[in-house]
Structure formats: structure tokens, C-alpha cells
Amino acid sequence: MIGLLPAPYCVFSQCKAYLNRFLKKYWIEWKNLISHANGTRVFLAGDMDDLTGDETRLVPLIGKVDLLKVGHHGCEGSSTPAFLQTLMPKICVFTTGEYSHNVQSRERIRDICGATMYFTARDGGVLALLGSNGDIRCYGQIH
């Protein structure tokens, strides 16, 4: 299921308790979600990957996005070339660190999209402020 939510910002954190405090009334359990604000589009892929065909099945419904929360922490089977070629995000957020299990996803994102990558473990959480028409400002060290 893909939900649609208008939102002026996204917060990515390793700490669910922190998110619950920060976004208490807006908290959404991890699921697939397209968020938009003033022409800026974000896809939160949750734990989605393509091992069971989810990316292939849903990519036509998602379309181009400005920011992608990388599915399944960038593990094997997520962020396939066809998925990335359709979404073409400018910014990708991994809710993890730069670990060996996500090196293939990182390389595909770099090679296909040239996107700026953020890692919640390395960057101390990430706050993405969504401006108009794809303008996004990201801040780390939000804890």
C-alpha cells in the first residue's frame, strides 16, 4: 500500500523514541509512503525491496521523486537499477550507516542518480526541509 501525505519536512533517525517525541502527532509506522509539499516529492520505501517484486510492481505508481528513503536499509534486493532509473532522486537517505551490506545500493545510487547520500548513523539523524519544486535542505546531527 502506498499512502499520500502532504508534509513540509521529513525526519530520519535511528531512534524511534526520538521520532515519537519529535513527530508525536504525525508519527506513521514504517510503511511505503509518498510525501509531497509544494511540488517536492519524497518516497519513504520502508523495508521494501524487489526480492518479491515490490519495487517492480510499485515503481509505475511512484514515479519521479526528489528524495528517497532507501528501502530495507539498502540491503541486497533493494534499490534496483530500474527502480532508481524511474525515481531518479537527488537525495537518498539510508536509515543505517555506511556498512558492507549496502555497498551495492550505494554504488548504484551514485552511478545511476548521482544523488547526495545521507546515513542516519553517520550523520546523527537527518532532517529534510522540503521547499518548493524539488528544493530540499538536509541537516544532520539532529539528536
Task: Estimate nothing, just give the exact number of structural domains.
Answer: 1
Query: Under CATH, the topology is which?
Result: Metallo-beta-lactamase, Chain A
Estimate the helix proportion, in percent: 25-40%
- Molecular shape: globular
List its salient traits.
143 residues, globular, Metallo-beta-lactamase, Chain A, six-stranded mixed sheet, 27% strand, alpha/beta, disordered N terminus
Structure description:
27% of the residues lie in helices and 27% in strands. The strands form 2 sheets. Strands 1-3-4-5-6-7 form a 6-stranded mixed β-sheet. Strands 2-8-9 form a 3-stranded antiparallel β-sheet, with no helix packed on it. Mean pLDDT is 80; it is low at 1-6 and 18-31. With 143 residues, it is α/β, with parallel strands linked by helices. The protein has helices at residues 16-22, 54-62, 81-87, 103-113, 120-123, and strands at residues 3-6, 9-12, 33-37, 40-44, 67-69, 91-94, 116-119, 126-130, 136-140. The protein has a single domain, classed as 4-Layer Sandwich (Metallo-beta-lactamase, Chain A).
